[in-house]
UniProtKB/TrEMBL annotation:
Listed GO MF terms: magnesium ion binding; phosphopyruvate hydratase activity
Biased composition (Basic and acidic residues): 164-180
Biological processes per GO annotation: glycolytic process
Keywords, sorted A to Z: Glycolysis, Lyase, Secreted
GO cellular component, one term: phosphopyruvate hydratase complex
This protein's name: Enolase
Species, as recorded: Caballeronia calidae
Length: 180
């Protein structure tokens, strides 16, 4: 996903997102790739690798006239629990399999090579040693970057998401807590 965090307002961020979306559609069409939109509004072209997907998005950001890593950053929703089997991360479309430590290194490598600001569901929900290693590896690059989210209660550098589970906000009413 794209994160237009360099925009001065929500209105501008929305405009940038729309422009990149349309630029991405043009890039995909020019390459003869599918532009059908999925349930969550994103494209799902048949690309050879995850790196290729990132590169296509970066190309669309540039085509739309923005600078990746300044105007617009990337966010990954990896959904790792969906392809974590028997202690390994199976990227069937790429014919590759990773141990937890190897998959952490892949995510860290992407974070070093690409302007990635957010990684959601980077590891399987019960891969506690992997989560610890990922947080250590991403936080080691910039201790300030690791401390700021915790200090401001934003979360941590490696976001974990557990499906439909929701934390209760004491300011919500009982009916608000269970609303979908």
């Amino acid at each position: 996903m794209i994160l237009p965090v360099g925009a001065p307002s929500f209105r501008e961020a929305l405009r940038q997102g729309v422009e990149v979306f349309h630029a991405l559609k043009g890039v995909l069409q020019a390459d003869g790739l599918g532009t059908s939109v999925g349930d969550e509004g994103g494209f799902a072209p048949n690309l050879p690798s995850n790196d290729a997907a990132i590169e296509v998005i970066l190309g669309a950001i540039e085509k739309a006239g923005f600078k990746a890593g300044t105007d617009i950053w990337l966010g990954l929703d990896v959904a790792s629990s969906e392809f974590h089997r028997n202690g390994c991360y199976e990227l069937a479309s790429e014919g590759r399999s990773f141990t937890s430590d190897e998959f952490v290194e892949l995510l860290v490598n992407w974070a070093e090579r690409y302007p990635i600001l957010s990684i959601e569901d980077g590891l399987a929900e019960d891969d506690w040693s992997g989560w610890k290693l990922l947080t250590e590896r991403l936080g080691r690059k910039s201790p300030t970057r690791r401390r700021r989210p915790v200090r401001h209660k934003y979360g941590n550098p490696a976001t974990r998401h557990r499906g439909e589970r929701r934390e209760c906000n004491p300011h919500q009413t009982q009916s608000d807590r269970h609303a979908k």
